[in-house]
Structures are given as structure tokens and as C-alpha cells.
Amino acid sequence: MTSLGDEAVVIQPISAEAFAGLDAVFFAGEASTVMQYWKAAYLAGAAVVDLTGALEGQPHVLVRSPLVELSTASHAEPSAAGSKPDGMTLAEISAHPVSVLLALVEARLGHFGLSRMVATVLQPASEMGNEGVDEMHQQTVSLLSFKPLQREVYDAQVAFNLVASLGEGARMDLARTTEKVQRHIGLLAGRHIGLLAGEEAVRSTRLQMLQAPVFHGYTASVWVEMSQRLSAETIRGALVKDGQMVEEDSAGNQMAVGRGEVLFRLGSEQASETDSFWLWIAADNLRLAARNAVACALELIEQKPLRGLR
Fold it and tell me: How much is the pLDDT for 271?
């Protein structure tokens, strides 16, 4: 028994029988739980969406971001791991929210000759769940009262501190997360298919992830290089074309909380036409992940309508 807001909630143990009659199942807990039960959920007829990434590499399981695909025209042929499902798909992995964030920018600017993006992403405590938020809060209180720091989640001081790596005993490895994000961006873009086809210029996103002393919301500083000069109006028009991204002069993690759109601000120092510029981006990390996961579930349901759900 627990609570959700002001309401009582009963959490029941997972069993194979628990999936009967469900149209969609979202795995967002431990990787071991995903591996143990995802096939039972699929066999029960549910659309299976993995938010943990544990299923990556499994046959007929795709890394997906329908949010990105909605805003991009057809590029290269679909990739084996990140393509639009066109055959037997057992489950979908909801792409890491940072990869969705940056792939949205790639998708919009790619038609104008995107050459390279370099991004520094600031990760919030809520990416580590309630335990990460609680530990940052406890560290903040302890530092202000001159008490020893709690280090069970991060194994490092993260309150009032900006770090590029966590302790050896931390529950997340920033370097591995960075590799995962870059891999997912490539899968969403179908980049390795372009290489196989002999494509000469392949877009690439270089990424650095930092643990920020904030509780919620991603922010990212992104340097963009284009193969042609573009006006500020053209850049803004490309980014806001379908409402997934919204320009805000004071975009930040607090302003992004609770909003489904990705907020951005174009560097004010840009000339009327330029082939390189800065972008400042902010997004609600949990809401972005949830929106993409729901889009994955709807995509699977559309392939195989289940029990009349639309």
C-alpha cells in the first residue's frame, strides 16, 4: 500500500497472469524485471514498451522515437534497430530522452545541410528517480548544517556541485549513459545505413553529459554547424514547424516542468545569416520520456489492434 498524491494505491506483485487483458505494458523499473516478464506480456497480447533499455539487442525489438519521426521526412532506408516497424516486432524500446531531444533538432535541421552538433547536456536528479532526488535534497540539507553527506545513490557530492563523473559505487555511469544516448541518436537517424550505402557526409552529434545540481528538467547547450548559411528566421521556422519545439527567451529547466514541448532559445549574437550557431534547449525529462513511450505503445497497437483499443 502506498499513495499517489492524495489517493491510496495498492501495488501488486508481478506474475505472468497479471498481463491478461492488458493492451499496453510499460516496463520502467529494474532491468531484471523486464527480462523476466516481457515475453509473458507479449504473449498475453499486450504492446510491450521498455523504458529501461534492457531489451536492446534482442531480436525483433526496436529502439524507437515516433516523436522524432513525426517531424521528419523520409531519409535513408530504415535501420535494423531503429526503423519504423514493418515486420514482426515483439517490443519497442523507448529511446533515451536525451537522444529524443537531440534527434528532434537533427530531424529539423537535417534538410538544410546539418554538418555537426556538439552538445553539453545537464542531467537532473530526477533521472535517478525518487531516490536520486531525495539524496540530492539530503546532501543540500547536510551541507547547510555541516553534517556528513549521504552518498548511496551518487557516491559523490552532487548538491551545489557540477560533475562530469560520479563515484565508482554510483547507480549510474555517466560515460555509459553518454554512449547509450549517442547510439540511440544514430539508430533514430538510420546513420549506419547511410554509411553502408556509401553516403559521403554523415551527420554526427558529439555529446558530453554532466550531473547538474538541479532536481528536475534537462538543459543542453548545443553548437550547430551547417553546410550552408541560414537566416535566423529560417532556423526558427525549421525548429518550430510542428509544435514539438517552442521558442522561449527564458527557456530553462523550471519553465519546462510539466510541459510536453521542448523549449529552445537561439543565440542572440547570431548574424542575419550564419552557418553556425548556439542553441539553448530545455525539456521536462520525465514528461518527454513518458510522451515517447506512449507514442511507442500507440504505434504497436496500430500495427496489431488489441481488443478494440484505439
Answer: 58
